[in-house]
UniProtKB/TrEMBL annotation:
UniProt-listed PROSITE patterns: SBP_BACTERIAL_1 (PS01037)
Annotated protein name in UniProt: Carbohydrate ABC transporter substrate-binding protein, CUT1 family
Pfam family, one: SBP_bac_1
Family: Belongs to the bacterial solute-binding protein 1 family.
SUPFAM superfamilies linked: Periplasmic binding protein-like II (SSF53850)
Source organism superkingdom: Bacteria
Organism name: Bifidobacterium adolescentis
Lineage of origin: Bacteria, Bacillati, Actinomycetota, Actinomycetes, Bifidobacteriales
Keywords: Signal, Transport
CDD domains xref list: PBP2_TMBP_like
Entries under InterPro entries matching the protein: Bact_solute-bd_prot1 (IPR050490), SBP (IPR006059), SBP_1_CS (IPR006061)
């Protein structure tokens, strides 16, 4: 940081997802080893705010950045009147599809509605492939419910009351009814763990004809499923009604300032630089990340990108000459910004596999799995001292 040469940054890799949160929680409980800054995914922010672990960044005048970030990411870091993270990336959802498989099945265009998706799935099954794969993933479930207009969770402004209405939320019901039909008819593959070696092989070979994922996935395709180069394309998410323009977020993270930091001012300067400086943002984009700010998403060079550089340094036209960032930027504009996460969503995701996840292997139904998940989340909320409404 040329403007702040006296600020030295020490980076510690504590893993990602649940591994990072376990390490962070252990440090918080011990009261030692707590970093000044932690990278926290959007879904986990409410949990750490409720614990009192994060500093409100409004004290640094961050309101000026409201129009800098996308509405979805801005909403994700703002909780009960405070701002608790500086967005560094985002995950607007899109529809990745293998054009060769679609052509072979006689499908000329990607599905624009979920009904078309269902019809296409039957055609693709006839040629020996699956339209997609889903072994049961809480993040994906929430993203699909979000896109379906669901609002199953909310937290009161004082942080003492939570609402969990998975069993009655219309968006949850809409997605579960549809996905249950897909599972029952064997139209989606449910055994292969996503992002595993077998998963990438299936993506590259055409066994999986599409992947419903976020804007951070291209680099993963490029380096782990090179056989798919030139075959794959990107389109907007199918919608529930004809003519809709609706997407959601799947993943994305922020830099959060820990309330215990003794170097808060210096830490904030770094956070501000890393999340708003154009060079810093592009350094992440060049490595396969997708930005959280509107300025980058309107950059002509960014929007016109058609190739990527793989880990060997080779330039690859993975998506058949398509301007893939332009598709993602459009998806970001379509994200509705009102979805909320639970203030104990890290826990919620940890028990998804044993509840809703059982429906993917035929041990129960989506509806029954959601009921079991609801029960666990209500119980957990009460055990943490929340007043829980259902």
């Amino acid at each position: 940081m040329k403007k702040n040469p006296n600020i030295v940054i020490k980076f510690t890799n504590a893993g990602s997802g649940k591994n990072e949160y376990k390490a962070l929680n252990n440090a918080l409980e011990a009261g030692s080893g707590i970093p000044d800054i932690a990278m926290i995914e959007y879904y986990a922010i409410p949990e750490y705010v409720i614990k009192g672990s994060l500093k409100n960044l409004n004290d640094y005048g961050t309101a000026k950045y409201k129009d800098f970030y996308t509405p979805g990411t801005w909403n994700a870091v703002n909780f009960n009147g405070g701002m608790y993270g500086m967005p560094v990336d985002s995950g607007p959802m899109a529809f990745y599809y293998d054009k060769e498989v679609f052509d072979k099945a006689g499908i000329s265009e990607p599905p624009s509605t979920w009904d078309e998706f269902y019809q296409d799935a039957k055609k693709i099954k006839q040629i020996g492939s699956y339209i997609t794969n889903d072994p049961g993933n809480a993040g994906f479930f929430n993203a699909m419910v979000w896109q379906a207009g669901g609002h199953p969770y909310s937290t009161s402004k004082d942080g003492t009351k939570v609402t969990v209405k998975l069993t009655t939320d219309k968006g949850v019901q809409k997605f579960c009814d549809f996905w249950q039909k897909m599972i029952d008819e064997g139209l989606i593959e449910t055994k292969t763990k996503d992002s595993s070696d077998d998963w990438y092989r299936s993506v590259g070979s055409g066994e999986f004809a599409s992947v419903i994922s976020a804007a951070w996935a291209p680099g993963m395709f490029l380096n782990n499923a090179p056989e798919g180069a030139g075959k794959w394309r990107i389109a907007q998410m199918p919608t529930w009604n004809v003519g809709e323009k609706v997407s959601s977020e799947y993943g994305g993270s922020s830099l959060a300032l820990m309330s215990s930091s003794k170097n808060a001012d210096a830490a904030y300067k770094f956070m501000e630089f890393a999340s708003t400086n154009s060079d810093a943002i592009m350094s992440r984009v060049d490595q396969g990340g997708f930005p959280a700010d509107l300025k980058t998403m309107s950059n002509d060079k960014f929007l016109s990108q058609t190739t990527m550089v793989n880990s060997d340094g080779d330039t690859v036209d993975y998506f058949g000459g398509e301007k893939f960032n332009a598709e993602f930027a459009e998806a970001a504009k379509r994200v509705t910004s009102k979805f909320e996460f639970l203030p104990y969503d890290v826990y919620a995701r940890s028990v998804f596999t044993d509840t809703v996840g059982a429906a993917y292997t035929g041990q129960t139904t989506m509806k029954e799995g959601v009921k079991a998940w609801q029960d666990k989340l209500v119980e957990q909320g009460k055990s943490q001292g929340f007043t829980v409404n259902e």
